[in-house]
């Protein structure tokens, strides 16, 4: 089974479980606070996943290991190459 | 470690995501278990907005993505026309 099929299966199973519980099709008398938490659950999971993604990106951007010397060296090499190619007639 | 604006932007993103996550978690998960007389309910909108606002934001995002794709495709077509 492909990854897509697996994901869709899992989504379908969880989705139907959530729908069955929210609509009350299983005949379970869930306490009121539990029902209140249950029905926005898909939206909550999506928002939580989005926050996790955003936070991870932000954290990795903030803790990325810069190499300032290498960056400066690379920039000077780029200038050199541009000058050299410009001399040989290549237009940017 | 990253420097300058990178650090600021990264930590800013992290802070924003934590704030949104905490507020939303309290709103959706914790509030139903807190007595409706408690003062904390004053700081949260009615429950229906907990689904409506993310839905609206998601649709807006889709709109922007669609507009961006349209813009890029139109610009591409003009460039091809000019090349011809």
From TrEMBL, chain A:
Q: Which GO terms describe its biological process?
A: dolichol phosphate mannose biosynthetic process; GPI anchor biosynthetic process
Q: Name one GO molecular function term.
A: enzyme activator activity
Major place of residence: endoplasmic reticulum
User: InterPro entries of this UniProt entry?
Assistant: DPM3
One GO CC term on file: dolichol-phosphate-mannose synthase complex
A Pfam family it matches? DPM3
Q: In which pathway does it act?
A: Protein modification; protein glycosylation
State the PANTHER family in the record. Answer: DOLICHOL-PHOSPHATE MANNOSYLTRANSFERASE SUBUNIT 3
What is the protein named?
Dolichol-phosphate mannosyltransferase subunit 3
Organism whose genome encodes this protein: Octodon degus (Degu)
From TrEMBL, chain B:
A single GO cellular-component term on record: dolichol-phosphate-mannose synthase complex
**Primary place of residence?**
endoplasmic reticulum
Q: Which InterPro entries match?
A: DPM2
Annotated TM spans: 12-34, 49-74
Q: Could you tell me the keywords of this UniProt record?
A: Endoplasmic reticulum, Membrane, Transmembrane, Transmembrane helix
- Where does this one sit in the cell? Endoplasmic reticulum membrane
Domain of life, per lineage = Eukaryota
- How does this chain assemble? Component of the dolichol-phosphate mannose (DPM) synthase complex composed of DPM1, DPM2 and DPM3; in the complex interacts directly with DPM3. Component of the glycosylphosphatidylinositol-N-acetylglucosaminyltransferase (GPI-GnT) complex composed at least by PIGA, PIGC, PIGH, PIGP, PIGQ, PIGY and DPM2. Interacts with PIGA, PIGC and PIGQ.
Function noted in UniProt: Regulatory subunit of the dolichol-phosphate mannose (DPM) synthase complex; essential for the ER localization.
Similarity field: Belongs to the DPM2 family.
Q: What is this protein called?
A: Dolichol phosphate-mannose biosynthesis regulatory protein
């Amino acid at each position: 089974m492909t990854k897509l099929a697996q994901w869709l299966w899992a989504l379908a199973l969880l989705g139907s479980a959530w729908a069955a519980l929210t609509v009350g099709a299983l005949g379970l008398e869930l306490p009121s606070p539990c029902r209140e938490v249950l029905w926005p659950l898909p939206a909550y999971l999506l928002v939580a996943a989005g926050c996790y993604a955003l936070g991870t990106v932000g954290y990795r951007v903030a803790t990325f290991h810069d190499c300032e010397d290498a960056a400066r060296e690379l920039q000077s090499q780029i200038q050199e190459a541009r000058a050299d190619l410009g001399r040989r007639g290549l237009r940017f | 470690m990253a420097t300058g604006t990178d650090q600021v932007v990264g930590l800013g993103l992290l802070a924003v995501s934590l704030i949104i996550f905490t507020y939303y978690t309290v709103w959706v998960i914790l509030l139903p278990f807190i007595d409706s007389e408690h003062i904390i309910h004053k700081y949260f909108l009615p429950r229906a907005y907990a689904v409506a606002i993310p839905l609206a934001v998601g649709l807006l995002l889709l709109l922007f993505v669609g507009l961006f794709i349209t813009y890029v495709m139109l610009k591409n077509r003009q460039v091809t026309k000019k090349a011809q």
